[in-house]
Give the backbone structure.
Amino acid sequence: MRAIRTASAALLITAAVAVSAPTASADDGTTPNVTSFGFSVTPRTVAPGGTVTLTTEGCEVPSVTVTSGIFDTVTLTEGRPGTATVDLDAKAGAEYEIAFDCKGERGTTTLTVAHGTTPPAPVTPVTPPAPPAPRKGVKAGFGSSTGSDALGTAELATGAVLIAAALGVAVALTRRGRTGGRP
C-alpha cells in the first residue's frame, strides 16, 4: 500500500513540474509564430508566377497588411481573404518570409518557391445566369382559407377518433390474448 502512495505522489509531482515548466520551441522557420490573431498562406509552396491565398482571422481592425519580398503588399479588409502573385524572378527552392501586420502586432510565416513556372490560369467563359424557372402552381395538401398552418376542428376531431379506435383495438387484443382466445 505504501508503494502505491509513493508512486502516486511521484506521478503527481512529475505532472505538476511538467505543467509548470516553460515549453521550449525551436523556430526553424517552418512554423508560424504565435500571435493574438490567426493567419495563413495557401499553398505553402508555389512556383514563380503562381498565386497564393492570404487569410487572417481574429484581427479586430478593418484591415491587415501583408508584406513579402516576392509579391506586392496586400491589404486584407474586414477579415476577407486576398491573393498575391509571386514574382516571376523569385528564386526557385528559396524560402521567403511573409509578414502579417494587425494594428502593429506582426506575425510571420514562410513561403517556399518551387522549381518551374506556373502556367497561366485558364480563362473560363462567363455565361449569363439562367432565367428563373416558371412557377408551377400551389402546393397541395391540408390548408385553410385563412392561409394559416393551424389544424382545423375537423382535422383534430378525426385524429382523436383514430387514436381512440387504435387504443380500443389494442385493449381488445390484449384481453383476448390473456383469456386464451375467448371473447
Summary: Helices lie at 2-20, 153-178.
